[in-house]
Amino acid sequence: MALRIFTQRCSIYLTVTDGNNMQGIINWNELWKVTRSGSMWRRTLNGPAGSFWDGRAKQFNESMMQNRERSQKQMAKIDLSPEYTVLDVGAGTGRLAIPIAKQVKSVTAIDPSGGMLACLQENMEREGVTNIRCINKQWEDIELGGDIEPHDVVIASHSLSMLDIQEALAKIDAAATKSVYLFTFAGRWMDGGLCEEICGEKRHSWSDYIHLCNILHDMEIYADVAIWDSEFEQRYANIDEAVTRMKEMYDLPLEKDKILRDHLSGTLVKDDGALCLKRASKSAMIRWQPNSHERA
Description:
The protein contains 13 helices and eleven strands. By secondary structure, it is of the alpha/beta class. The strands form two sheets. Strands 4, 5, 6, 7, 8, 9, 10 and 11 form an eight-stranded mixed β-sheet that branches. Strands 1-2-3 form a three-stranded antiparallel β-sheet. The protein is globular and about 50 Å long.
C-alpha cells in the first residue's frame, strides 16, 4: 500500500508498508527543493551565479571581520595538520579559509561571487597568506578530477544554498579523503524574526541542521553532530545606517522601509556610542568521514 501527498512541484511524502517495515516516509531532498524555491532567500538569490553577493561583498567582509570569535569557535572544532589540503565550499571573503591556510599545506576556496573572492584576495595580502587558490564557480559546476582533485578536508560554512542538496552533498563526500565539516544553524536562523515580519516566513525550514542530517541519513552517511550557543554582533553609527545596510543586504523594496525601521528600532541597543544588533542562535557542526558509508 502506498500513500502519496503531492505539492505543485513534486512528491514529497511517500509511505510504503512492507510487513512491519515502513520506508521512504519523507523524500527530504525534494522537501529541501520546495522550501528553498519558496523562500524569500532563494528568490533573492535567483539570477547569475554570485551576482547577489558581488555588490554586498565589502559590507559582508566588514561584518565578518567584526565577528572573529565565531570563526575561532569553528576553527577549534576542525582537525587540521600541516600536510593537509583543505577545500572551502562557499568560502566567501575567507573568514575560515585564511586562518585555516596558516595551519595547512594549501586551501582551495570556491565561491560563485567574484566580489567575495576579490575581498578574500585582499584579506590574503593583508594577512600575508599565499597558499590559497581561488575558483570563481558554483559548486554545482565544479568538476571533480577537472577543476579540482580530492582534498584531505572539505568544509562548508553557512554556504549550502544548492537546490539539489543531495547531489551537492554527494560531491562534497567524493571530494574529501579524510573528513567533512558542515556548519549551519540549529533551529531558527538568526535574523531576529525580520523575515517573518516582512514576509510572514520563518527562516528555519531549510537551514536547520536536522534537514541536512536527514538527507545524509538517506544517503547512508551517519554523521556526528555538535551544537553550541552562538551570537552575531553588528555595529552601526545610527538607525539610518542600519536601515540602509540591512535593506541592501536583504534587497528589500521601498515599501518595506517602515517595517524594517520599526524592527531595528526595537532590537538595536546602544553600546559605546554606537547602535549594536546582537542576534543569538544555535550553531551546528555536522562531521563525517568521507565514503565511510561505502566501507560500512
